[in-house]
Amino acid sequence: MKISEVVLQVSENGDLHIASELLQEMGLSPADPVYLAYLTRGGAKNDYQEFLLSPECIEAGEDAEKLLIPSPLLEQANLSPGEDIQILCLDRAIVLCETSTLDRNDLEAILQQLRAAQELAFSLPEEAGSLIHQLEQIIQEGAIGHEAAE
Hints:
36% of the residues lie in helices and 13% in strands. The protein is an alpha+beta fold. The chain has a two-stranded antiparallel sheet with strand order 1-2. Strands 3-4 form a two-stranded antiparallel sheet. The N and C termini lie far apart (51 Å).
């Protein structure tokens, strides 16, 4: 799957014209219904100034198109099941985030974490899985002991 994009300009009258040739390239024919979908923060305003044209209603296909992420994976990412998330697809990596829009600082922090994880993975011996599991247990026991002390 690839996302293609074109640059169009809103006219002085506030109209957006999409050439018929471009619509045909998108698989749309004359008299086809077209749905315009965009993201909001609970209102009608297009806060992100992005939209999607589709020949099908987005809401109608929502259940069939759901991506199910196992609860343990969400828990590792400190996300709650049922919570809206943002998914970043990178080369050989998928990053799950809260739905808040990520700014440059957020992306740089994720990049630093990925680099640190990569360096650690290369420096660990083949028994890394066992070592990581042991470290997780130590951290859990320390967190539980710390909570009990408070």
